Structure to design on (436 residues):
């Protein structure tokens, strides 16, 4: 079947033969299929979807396009976590050392921020000297020594995914359930882990604003992972408002340190503990969720997980001194407060708008090549359901210039809505999806 014929079949809603889809993808990797033809297929998939067998075949092709690791041999169970992206989501910085302190291995490959969502690699790289570009041999060595490692995707792992995502990003086809599932699951299978916990965000600041669509994505990923022998569970978590207080790279690192001291925002702690508990129970190292939560909470409160993170920072070339002296992290020269215009109740705190405001400050990027300013961002000092007084500080803006702070304040004002009556705050964990 020619590339044009295959594109036409998917455009018209037909299910593709696995062999035809595999040959098309392999030909693209050999540059025998043009970018415009692959973009056309991706758009057809965006509108027509993929069947379970088509999604599995695409995932297999992505996995087999590169090298596969194997952490399933001797040693503690190896697990990882993936978030579909949110604002203020610094969970990975807490989760990796916390699960390692519990006795699991956490070989974590993370991504960069794009659009209104932040990226774990950008946060880590706000720590002076921290290296996220380890090769696979050093990656494995760090996991063996520290119990966890946090790096970016290397060229050896799922190279087809990197090429497909670059096209999806510029062709308006990112928000497709089968394409998202194939991208995420392929990389996690290639990591060679035995367990995966998925944090599927739902709400204004998530790629999936609708809970039903988020659940479909979670179910697709859990089932797809299982078809490749990877045990996965998913939590649906709220992302209508930012997670925690800090939004911005160095600011979020500070907040992660606080959480690892047993302090920090309650919502960040709750989501992290729940994801960790699911991962630990699925791995068979804890008898049930209640026991796991209790044990994990004690590891946060006694500071041992923070010490583990310090060892990780040092092993990956970073300045471990930032833990005890956060002033060694980048700090913005301009700090301004946004005050409440009146007394009332916070009913909306739009995570997407907050994320876009952070991008405008320089904390995020419009395109992959954009530079990140690690110092800038926000401390969001209120939450949905809070009563605020006129003149009370709603947010603290960390900016490079006075003009930047003023523009950010205007955008933050658009993210907030106050009312004369309270609104109940929805739960953080909206549901769970287990293997079928």
């Amino acid at each position: 079947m020619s590339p044009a014929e295959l594109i036409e079949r998917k455009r018209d809603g037909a299910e593709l033969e696995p062999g035809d889809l595999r040959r098309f993808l392999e030909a693209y990797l050999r540059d025998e299929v043009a970018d415009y033809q692959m973009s056309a297929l991706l758009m057809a998939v965006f509108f027509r979807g993929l069947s379970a067998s088509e999604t599995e075949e695409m995932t297999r092709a992505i996995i087999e396009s590169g090298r596969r690791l194997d952490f399933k041999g001797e040693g503690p169970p190896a697990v990882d976590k993936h978030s579909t992206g949110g604002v203020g989501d610094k969970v990975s910085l807490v989760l990796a050392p916390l699960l390692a302190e519990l006795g699991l291995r956490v070989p974590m490959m993370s991504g960069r921020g794009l659009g209104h969502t932040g990226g774990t690699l950008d946060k880590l790289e706000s720590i002076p000297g921290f290296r996220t570009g380890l090769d696979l041999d050093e990656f494995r060595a760090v996991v063996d020594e520290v119990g966890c490692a946090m790096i970016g995707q290397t060229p050896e792992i799922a190279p087809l995914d990197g090429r497909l995502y670059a096209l999806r990003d510029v062709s308006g086809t990112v928000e497709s359930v089968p394409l998202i599932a194939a991208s995420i699951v392929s990389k996690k299978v290639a990591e060679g882990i035995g367990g995966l916990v998925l944090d599927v965000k739902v709400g204004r600041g998530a790629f999936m604003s609708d809970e039903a669509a988020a659940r479909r994505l979670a179910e697709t990923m859990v089932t797809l992972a299982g078809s490749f022998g990877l045990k996965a569970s998913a939590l649906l978590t709220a992302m209508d408002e930012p997670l925690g207080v800090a939004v911005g790279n160095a600011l979020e690192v500070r907040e992660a340190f606080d959480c690892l001291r047993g302090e920090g925002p309650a919502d960040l702690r709750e989501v992290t503990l729940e994801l960790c508990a699911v991962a630990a129970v699925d791995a068979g190292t804890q008898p049930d969720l209640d026991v796991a939560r209790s044990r994990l909470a004690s590891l946060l409160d006694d500071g041992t997980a923070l010490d583990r993170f310090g060892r990780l920072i040092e092993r990956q070339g970073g300045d471990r001194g930032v833990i005890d002296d956060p002033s060694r992290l980048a700090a913005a020269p301009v700090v301004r407060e946004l005050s409440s215009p009146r007394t009332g109740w916070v009913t909306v705190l739009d995570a997407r708008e907050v994320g876009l405001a952070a991008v405008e400050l320089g904390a995020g990027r419009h395109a992959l090549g954009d530079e990140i300013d690690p110092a800038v961002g926000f401390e969001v000092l209120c939450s949905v359901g809070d009563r605020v007084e006129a003149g009370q500080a709603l947010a603290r803006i960390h900016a490079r210039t006075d003009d930047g702070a003023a523009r950010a304040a205007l955008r933050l004002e658009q993210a907030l809505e106050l009312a004369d009556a309270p609104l109940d705050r929805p739960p953080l964990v909206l549901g769970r999806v287990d293997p079928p």
